[in-house]
Fold each of these.
Amino acid sequence: MSAPHTDHSPHPTQDSSIHDVPANAAEIASHAVEYLKVGAALLVLTGVTVGLSYVDFGSRSMNIVVGMIVATIKAGLVAAIFMHLKGEKITIWRFLVMTGIFAAGLFFLTYLAHSDPISGTFHATH
């Protein structure tokens, strides 16, 4: 009979550097505290959004702009912390910025179409 395997070296798939697992409890706790702070900030900003919905900023367009600013801040927090973009490489940020620019362009085109619709109707002739 052969002796049981007694090598206690970690298996390569269990190496913490492969899976980017925090090394100790203090690091895990710091991540948890960061998540709780961001969660609290999101709750506060949701309250701000509700409060701002009762404020008239002069026009419907300005009300939408103020709401979108608060929503952008909340989306930025979610993306940076919960989606772990805060520690990503610059290439990911470049793609994110370009996506934002194209999305803003689409919003602008929608705004242009809404503010200056095509007048009249199209009549087909036979």
Amino acid sequence: MKKCLVVVLSLVMFCTACSTAWVSTLDSILAAAAPALVNILEIAAAANGHPMNSNLATKINGDAAVIKTLAADFAKDGSGNACQNLQAAIVTYAADQALVLQVAQVTDPNTQTKITLLMALVSGTVQAITAVIPSCPANAQAALKALPPYSVSSFTDHYNSILVAPTGNAAVDAATPGLKLHRHSKFVRAVTFGRLQ
């Protein structure tokens, strides 16, 4: 029985490592998480009456794009260097999240609560990203123990519900409905007359 279990688990791990389905899952997570971080910068800018930190927004989008590229490279070539490069890019992206939290400080307590709740939700995306990456030595145990805390659709729904909750700050409340995350492209939303978000 134990030998049978070992063979089955080895087969599952081998098949997971060979599959590239995790790359599209990672892309979906980043497609929601990176804009969510940029939205938090926009909320802080609206609350403070300052322009958004466009340099940090560009860095976040660039770092997310690097992760996508490195994930595709790692899926093609599972060598140690590809794994290490991907891990380094994820650490950089996690540092971006910490920087957003530092920059997104506002004096309005209701808006700061909104930012804190959104950041708490977004911070789970790094764990979700590392959980889907197969057979990377540092991530192997995490991938077996941790699953992404949300599906992308659950993440988007929860994020949007926090995002549009009124704060009493007119500038923030006017800006947030336009910052909603969408699960589908503009084309799909137009074709379905807004039924699919």
Amino acid sequence: MAPPRSFWKGYLKLSLVTCPVAMLPAVSEAEKVSFHTLNRTTGHRVHSHYVDAETGKPVEAADQVKGYERAKDEYVMLEDEELDAVALESTHTIDIDMFVPADSIGWIWYDTPHYLIPDDKIGEEAFAVIRDAMVASNTRAISRVVLYNRERAVLIEPRDKGMVLWTLRYGDEVRDAKDYFGEFKKAKIAGQDKKHAEGLIEKQTKPWSPALVNDPVQKALLEMIAAKEKNKRKMAKASARPKGGNVVDLMAVLKKSLQEASPH
């Protein structure tokens, strides 16, 4: 399978060190079963349209605008040009702001991973300098970049010969675990129970493999779709068979009967 194309190209910058880079998705849902909404009667696809919530009339694309609700049914309209004007500095450049210890970022802050690679031969050396410096110092780079029409905080970590860029969740998106776990009292666990649980874990421990997280629903859907396609082909084949087979046999029987009934 051909590798995916880069969806973002720009520059990675650390002080005076700059190199052209390309970003590629590290995860994909392209293989997932997806569905279209169809008209059951015609089999044609159904398209959705935006309509005015009050008048019920369709709203053309040129008349659609983003709005921020500041009070009940009161909105501040923002044009695309106004939104695009925000954070333009990070549209094509990942300017590293700071570094943090590698083990200081909690798992909950990590959002979506992307592969970051040098975009030309000339920039490979500068790319390697930044990557290897993070390996040596056991640090991760923090920066910002515009992705998916929004400026995002990102973390960059060295990985093999390249780097992985993670989008990070913002502070107001992460809830404090203490709000959920803080009221739990420390349970008293009998030594025998603990030993039994540890034995079960040891017995059921396996080496990691992507096969451990296969999607059974995806598999079942594909099997169901394949069965429906097979049944559809059988029905089409049956309907395409000549209808005259029984007629020929009947005509032969009638002819034979006439011959036997004719006077000698």
